[in-house]
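Exam prep: given the inputs below (a chain plus adenosine-5'-diphosphate), describe the expected output before reading on.
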Amino acid sequence: MASDQVILETINLDKSFGAIHAVRTVSWKVYQGRVNALVGDNGAGKSTLIKLISGALAPNAGSFRVHGQETTIGGPAGAFNLGIAAVYQDLALVESRDVVMNMFLGSEMTRGVGAIFLDHKGMLRQAHDVLNDIHARIPNVREMVRNLSGGQRQAVAVGRALIRGGEIIIMDEPTAALGVEQTQEVLQLIDTLRKQGKTIILISHNIQQVFEIADYISVMFHGELLGTRRREEATEAEIVAMIMGRRAP
Ligand SMILES: Nc1ncnc2c1ncn2[C@@H]1O[C@H](COP(=O)(O)OP(=O)(O)O)[C@@H](O)[C@H]1O
Ligand SMILES: [Mg+2]
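Solution:
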């Protein structure tokens, strides 16, 4: 992995909420086509860091480099334009709409002069293709989201990110609410995305899971980034020690 490319970099990123210093001058490298895990105790600043990257929050200081270019994120729309897509914990899916409409919410395909008609056929086909590509087990794209399992919902949310051109897919605790089987489904989904060259940022509490799937493991403690290890060079004991605030030598 010596040739791994950095696709995204934060430089001295800083964020406070009043007196709470949630992210402290974090300079973090995210590697292209890899699973980049972010671990740390509750309140370590993981969600805040990825919200800065996905444009959900604006930093107090610091900057970003994407594909080597210094840039600002400029809100969620700006992040999308840079290929950064967050798949949030609550997934923000609409229960009473089907899979296709959920995948195209807010970015519906249109047809006709002036693009005034929704292109239902086109959306159906693309939703089907995208879900096929990620080996999602969703038998019918016209199914209502309320009838889907947790694993299937993750696939729909990821599909939505891909349709919008997501190259860097951010997942914050995607398996936190899932059982064993559906957790496996989501890990397979992450592996499939990696095989397709996507970059994944994965926040997880589950160290075993992180060692199973991640290529890089980064540890946050009290708002600071303590370090990044290649998975095959790290031990669980070392990572756990870092999570508890022990800086590695
Ligand atoms: N919107 C907010 N307003 C005030 N404090 C916040 C907000 N979001 C997060 N925090 C605080 O920032 C710190 C880091 O939180 P967070 O990034 O959610 O940590 P993690 O995801 O690692 O559990 C915590 O002390 C948390 O209470
Ligand atoms: Mg969090």
